[in-house]
Design goal:
single chain, alpha/beta, Rossmann fold, 3 domains, 6 strands, about 10% strand, RNA binding
């Protein structure tokens, strides 16, 4: 008998039937690839941020804690974990877990100020709960004078001076009390950061050379400033040595692709360091097929200030996959299904990007045409326009769209750091 009382069946933005998933799964897919407030191809950053806030209220506080920590530590995201923590800590159940979440998502002094700015974004008069105030205050104890000075400048809605006055942390000793006093008075020693060194108006070549020699540049700062160093006339071998000396730390695979795009003369060193940082995994045996989405939506930039795209994220993961899976064949899908040459490193990126025109979202057709293998992995934004068959495979979602297709028999993985490939190894080790 026909009935109108049927469960709602969602769809992707391209019209394919989408899986009905739990609020927790919705939260994970919204957060793990999210550069907060940045527009994506199908949805605005504002809509994604509002959905994250709404979903946090629908999941148990313990689950929200796990999402925030995973996004911060494994996906190496900065802003989205703070939003998850903010929304969770608005509730009584969430505030009881302040001790668990705040130390894990507050890693820099400006994380404190951003958290507070977000906390009061919609309601400037909302009181700061006692538990939250206490744990934010305790976070100050982890930072030395250099770190506090580095992040105390600039025009911000909430400054570090505001934050320390609001949270009133208890210093661990007299030296820390004196340090915090200097912060409140605006008397911190000027930090020897690259921004300060370059703002003095002296010889830029000399400044960059000194910063490199003294190891004053973090990994991300070094990658982002390769062009500036080269333009200033810094010795090329010194720059290459700095690249070789980089530590992975909180760097993402995409950071190396961005640096290579801006500095093609250093591509050999960047490729070698990329592989050194991300490819040292235990190789997984068997025949693996990796299917990469090169549809038009994958050409969307990651943020308003970035030239990097979702497809670059997918390429970076494919490059790591080449080193991870013993026997790997790589295909792309858009309007067609195309196998790309068995290259590695940046040559594989070029082969993927140039494999076919970036247009359609024919994921279902591509999956039905693929040859058989013992392991199937799809990297996509999940916005197929046609139904996707239920197969035994892994689907890595690199976007934050509301609905997706990779559930049911699929092992669904959200995120774009190299850690997403570790989930495959862990899943197979425990299967």
């Amino acid at each position: 008998m026909a009935t109108i009382n049927k469960p709602h069946q969602g769809s992707t933005h391209e019209g394919a039937p989408a899986a009905r998933i739990s609020p927790l799964a919705q939260l994970e897919r919204s957060v793990m690839s999210c550069l907060l407030w940045e527009d994506e191809f199908y949805e605005s950053g504002q809509a994604i941020g509002e959905r994250i806030a709404e979903l946090v209220a629908r999941v148990p506080a313990e689950d929200a804690v796990r999402v925030a920590i995973r996004a911060k530590e494994e996906m190496r995201l900065r802003h989205a974990p703070l939003l998850v923590a903010r929304e969770m800590l608005r509730t009584k159940e969430g505030r009881a877990l302040a001790k668990e979440v705040i130390p894990r998502v507050i890693l820099r002094p400006d994380d404190i100020t951003e958290f507070l700015a977000n906390y009061w974004k919609d309601n400037p008069d909302e009181p700061l709960a006692k538990q939250v105030k206490r744990r934010l205050g305790e976070a100050f104890r982890a930072f030395d004078e250099y770190q506090l000075a580095k992040y105390s400048g600039g025009k911000k809605a909430v400054t570090l001076r505001d934050a320390i006055r609001i949270t009133r942390p208890k210093p661990s000793d007299d030296a820390q009390a004196a340090l915090w006093g200097r912060l409140v008075k605006g008397e911190l020693a000027t930090p020897d950061t690259w921004e300060v060194a370059l703002s003095k108006g002296g010889d830029k070549k000399e400044a960059w050379t000194r910063l490199l020699a003294e190891g004053r540049l973090g990994g991300l700062a070094a990658l982002r400033n390769l062009r500036n160093m080269a333009k200033a006339g810094v010795d090329q071998e010194s720059i290459r040595g700095a690249i070789r000396g980089l530590k992975a730390g909180r760097l993402l695979p995409i950071n190396f692709l961005a640096a290579a795009r801006a500095n093609p003369q250093f591509e050999p060193e960047l490729e070698a360091k990329f592989l050194d940082c991300f490819a040292g995994r235990v190789r997984l045996e068997g025949e693996t097929i990796l299917l990469v989405d090169v549809s038009g939506s994958m050409d969307a930039v990651l943020s308003a200030k970035s030239e990097m795209r979702r497809i670059d994220v997918a390429c970076a993961l494919a490059m790591i996959g080449r080193e991870t899976f013993e026997h790997l064949r790589v295909f792309t899908f858009s309007n067609d299904l195309v196998e790309v040459p068995g290259r590695r490193g940046f040559a594989l990126r070029d082969a993927i990007v140039g494999s076919q025109y970036h247009a359609g979202t024919n994921l279902g057709t591509a999956l039905r045409r693929l040859p058989k293998a013992s392991r199937l992995i799809v990297i996509t934004d999940e916005q197929s326009h046609e139904p996707v068959p239920q197969l035994a495979g892994y689907l890595i979602n690199v976007a934050s769209a509301r609905n997706g297709v990779g559930y049911g028999t699929w092992v669904h993985i959200d995120g774009w750091s190299d850690r997403v490939l570790d989930y495959i190894a862990r899943h197979e080790a425990t299967a």
